[in-house]
Specification:
Layout lengths: L9 H7 L8 E4 L6 H9 L4 E6 L2 H10 L7 E5 L2 H6 L10 E5 L4 H5 L25 H7 L2 H12 L4 H12 L7 H12 L12 H12 L1 H15 L5 E6 L2 H14 L20 E3 L9 H6 L7 E7 L7
Parallel strand pairs: 1-2, 1-4, 2-3, 4-5
Antiparallel strand pairs: 5-7, 6-7
Helix pairs in contact: 7-8, 7-10, 8-9, 11-12
Bound molecules: S-adenosylmethionine.
């Protein structure tokens, strides 16, 4: 079986999310091709693993890859925010939850759904067939202002307005159908010398479109809260993020749950009744070492944060 994706920070994840007892349950909320899952199942021989993914095609690859562990695994085709919100009643509470955010090398290199401009593919970018709006719809139908906002907010693209203007001017003549058409248009709009260091001028816009199509940031925010709700007390949650927008959400969430009281500092007496529900294990995010960075380029932007659940959170 050809596998396109190398799991990032594998030694760090294996050690920080190591089971503390026998027959523990781990939820891999972003199973992908099962790279992390296979490592955990191999190393920890009584561990049970639930794996889910929004993408049915990649989930099938993982199922085949993990077939040897059928007795210790279960799979769900689901968005992680929905999965944790409606956590299956017949599953134990997990001891460990792993999120390895974003998309897999499989999506960039193999899926043919237009995640990368290195190949010329139809503009789609949907992880799941269930989504109605594709990147093609956004690029060809959204008003210029909304398009510019997406590129600015989700891609941190400083020249979002110029790009949006060029997209709208071009689509009045003919629709923008493929990744290459869009990438070349962005390159022309920004001028050949406009580069962010070594990255292609279209990189940020492609990231923005993918995040918008799949609602990635909104799903992450609600998934963290819902996952904390089902995690066992003393259980661990690890999150690997790949860009600052994701990492900020994780960092803020962990910090907010690590505080006992959220009343304004000038208030003499606590009225919020806040309790500290998470302890942060990784004071600073764990990043890849030199060896991994040179062998697996996507690891260069990976940041792992881990926290332990201290007690149940009181519902508001
Ligand atoms: C970086 S890959 C995971 C790679 C995996 N850890 C491995 O080592 O093979 C992220 C996976 O999460 C899935 N995904 C992204 N957002 C999701 C969401 N909101 N709910 C469920 N799956 C999601 C993607 O389809 C992708 O397969």
């Amino acid at each position: 079986m050809d596998i396109a994706h190398y799991p990032v920070l594998k030694d760090e994840v294996l050690s920080l999310l190591k089971p503390r007892g026998r027959k523990e349950l781990m939820v891999d909320a972003t199973l992908g091709e099962g790279g992390h899952a296979v490592l955990f199942l191999e190393r920890y021989t009584t561990l049970r693993l639930v794996g889910l993914d929004a993408d049915a095609l990649i989930l099938d690859i993982a199922k085949r890859r993990l077939a040897a562990y059928a007795e210790r695994t279960r799979f769900y085709h689901a968005w992680f925010n929905a999965f944790f919100k409606d956590y299956p009643g017949d599953l134990d509470e997990p001891d460990t939850i792993l999120f390895d955010l974003g998309i897999s090398m499989y999506h960039f290199e193999v899926s043919g759904r237009g995640f990368s401009f290195r190949n010329d593919e139809p503009l789609d970018m949907r992880l799941s067939e269930g989504l109605e709006t594709s990147a093609h719809d956004i690029v060809n139908q959204y008003p210029e202002r909304e398009l510019a906002n997406i590129l600015f907010e989700l891609g941190e693209e400083k020249r979002s307005r110029e790009i949006a203007r060029s997209i709208v001017a071009r689509r009045q003549r003919a629709p923008i159908d493929t990744t290459r058409e869009l990438a070349e248009l962005i390159e022309r709009a920004l001028g050949p010398r406009y580069r962010y260091g070594r990255i292609h001028p279209a990189t940020r816009s492609f990231q923005a479109l993918r995040i918008a199509v799949n609602g990635e940031l909104v799903r992450l925010e609600s998934a963290l809260q819902a996952a904390l709700g089902v995690l066992k007390v003393n259980g661990r949650m690890g999150v690997i993020s790949f860009h600052s927008l994701e990492d900020r959400i994780v960092k803020r969430f962990f910090r907010a749950k690590n505080k006992s009281c959220t009343c304004p500092p000038e208030q003499p007496i606590c009225t919020c009744g806040g309790r500290r529900v998470l302890e942060i294990v990784t004071r600073k995010p764990v990043v890849a070492g030199e060896h991994e960075r040179s062998g697996n380029p996507p690891s260069r932007s990976a940041k792992l944060r881990v926290a332990v659940k201290l007690e149940e959170e009181e519902s508001p």
